[in-house]
């Protein structure tokens, strides 16, 4: 009986506690993966003028209603010169509205409570009726939580009806200007959840905290119907350990807004590398000590400061922001985002070693919750894309944003609009709601002591950093349209900026391609060149720059490492963390054997172990060490992989143990010997080198390769070597035998001195080219090579129609540009043939892209069912260009330029071009030949036997 009575008392206490908490009842689902069907009617476009069902929450276009509009359409429509956008006229100029009906229950137990209906986000104007009565003013503004007190409109214990009329375009011109004349897809509908809340009439409405690094907690408490003599109990629990930190009780006055100050001991601070969180429970007590109402918030203790002409400081440490701009976007559901996708996005952003995120409007609450949990700073922005809200509208929307988001420790700065969308009249209003008084910026502008210039050029850099005195933080830079920007040029730009103590970092544009799968056509649509700006694709495919950013922004940096015979296992390492000692991390090493195709098809691990990392503080450098295994120099590549304190991979690197010449020589000796010597034959206009069934024929008039046969089968390598980025004119040629090898030597005038072709007895065709060596008589048309040099080397024809894939040893798996080589690693890689055009969604996308430049070639096999070919390089650092990527259809409309690819199909190059992107140019090389220079040798071997 005692046990039964005890259980009853516990149950009674639990029920009583629940009764004092805010109760929530969802009328919609919680996201795109959990929806509720409501009745729906749409005014125009798809499935209009009839009642049907719609999933809530959702963007109604993605449910097959209304029509599609991209924000820039409105902008272009107002401009005189619209010719370049004629291709997009098929997009509807949509201004539809929708009507939602839904019936719901309200329990009798809610009588006597204050009931609100809460909308997390509606696009764009929302008029709400409960039981045929309008509950309040039409809400205008798409990205904000809003609510109405509907207590007196409800029927308790009975069915209630709700009607919501949603207009895609706002009746307020400033709302349209700020939110919908913008560079993004425009959607309509109730796209975030809808729910009821029930609170006691005497209640804690909401709180705003300033939880500082020293344990001081200043809390602004907003109360309703408070009485004299009531108190507030505050308790704190660690979210990590679930251990209670303490409990404190504060007296209250009868004012609706009060500030409570408490202090808590033994607090662990929040930062992006140590996101320590606490559960703060606030209980409003009656005069007799009973709990009247309680709320719980998750908070982090940290101190944010902006120090003019100095920097942005977190817990006394100057921040260096490594961020991205992220839209709330899903290719199938539009702006309706699941918690699962928020977590996926945040983890992908952390994988790139970023520590911050920004967007043009407040994101879903669950994304901010994830940022709190895993440690991502967030720059939260009142919407205003190049145009601002009116002061009347902004004064309504600002507190909606602030009251929802104020307590997230991840938020370190507020932004008032973007690129001219600033309403200066409300700049000072942010501080009215924020007890932390976080800094307010105007993105793109030099404002309030913080210069946030977008896409700065070299002139800006000189003025703003080298001669300026403002803190500099780019809220957008290195525009990532298609396969440009972001990773490309980041290393050089970041190195230059980082050297200045006033540099506070920046945010790359942008995180995700906004390609929407249209329900009217079934096609993925980016509105031409407007939306594919992401470093990940619309379905979160990782593009090449993803890995470049990951390496450049790695908090663990390895100094350039060249493994020589003197290497003893020591290498220099730098700690680029802001808050972590390197002894919190760990690193592993592997020695890998990477054989040529004929020897083995797979890498072999010879040895592995752990690296001893130095215990160095942020900003310091030290020496890491591992003991070399006995078989170390038998390996081909040293792999290193670093892990953070949570066990997540930070970055990995690979360094050659053998150079190309030594690698090739070692594996060459493993091939079976051939006793039959090579030979040659000539005709009036052809020279042919032959051995082991292979015949390579050259044109006597110019020395070029004409045809290769393996038996009766023609290998389509021909029409080369064509000079790339230099000039060469055939001069003379000679044939000879050198032992059992047939040799054809071609001499040139110009940049190339000579090319020596060798046919070995086993049928390997060697090409040994000497270029850019100094000779007094080596002049052709006044120049050796193009100046500046973007491409330099040789090309051949090798039609891609029979190629099924490529397997290679070199830096991979992604293609590179001269200013985007970081993020690729030495290894054996495999790519099946694809014709992916990055960011173009009119056909399937496969990553990594097949075509383009590939770095650090050791060997590569162009795979084919009929005519495979393997090429080996004895020369270090050769770039292998594989075919010419198809360019984006709309690149010219956005000023995207790409240096011309070399002639032919495949190329072997000393130099390749940089890609041009906003904020960084396409760097070129300037080569000068001095007297006595021996020039450059390119030594390649072609094998036509491998299948």
TrEMBL record:
Q: Which EC class is this protein assigned? A: hydrolase
The UniProt record lists the Glycoside hydrolase family 2 immunoglobulin-like beta-sandwich domain at 255-302
**Recorded GO terms, molecular function?**
beta-galactosidase activity; carbohydrate binding
What EC number(s) does this enzyme carry?
3.2.1.23
Q: Which residues form the Glycoside hydrolase family 2 catalytic domain?
A: 311-521
What positions does the domain Glycosyl hydrolases family 2 sugar binding occupy?
48-200
Record bears the keyword Signal: yes
**Gene3D superfamilies in the record, alphabetically?**
2.70.98.10, Galactose-binding domain-like, Glycosidases, Immunoglobulins
Q: Which InterPro entries match?
A: Bact_Beta-galactosidase, Beta-gal/glucu_dom_sf, Gal_mutarotase_sf_dom, Galactose-bd-like_sf, GH, GH-type_carb-bd, Glyco_hydro_2_cat, Glyco_hydro_2_N
Q: Show the catalytic activity.
A: Hydrolysis of terminal non-reducing beta-D-galactose residues in beta-D-galactosides
Cofactor names: Ca(2+)
User: Does Nucleotide-binding show up as a keyword for this record?
Assistant: no
Instruction: Tell me one GO biological process term.
Output: lactose catabolic process
**Alphabetical UniProt keywords:** Calcium, Glycosidase, Hydrolase, Signal
Indicate the secretion signal residues.
Answer: 1-19
Recorded GO cellular component terms are: beta-galactosidase complex
Which PANTHER family does the record match to this protein? BETA-GALACTOSIDASE
Assembly, per entry? Monomer.
Family note: Belongs to the glycosyl hydrolase 2 family.
Name of the featured protein: beta-galactosidase
> In which organism is this protein found?
Bacteroides oleiciplenus YIT 12058
The top of its lineage is: Bacteria, Pseudomonadati, Bacteroidota, Bacteroidia, Bacteroidales
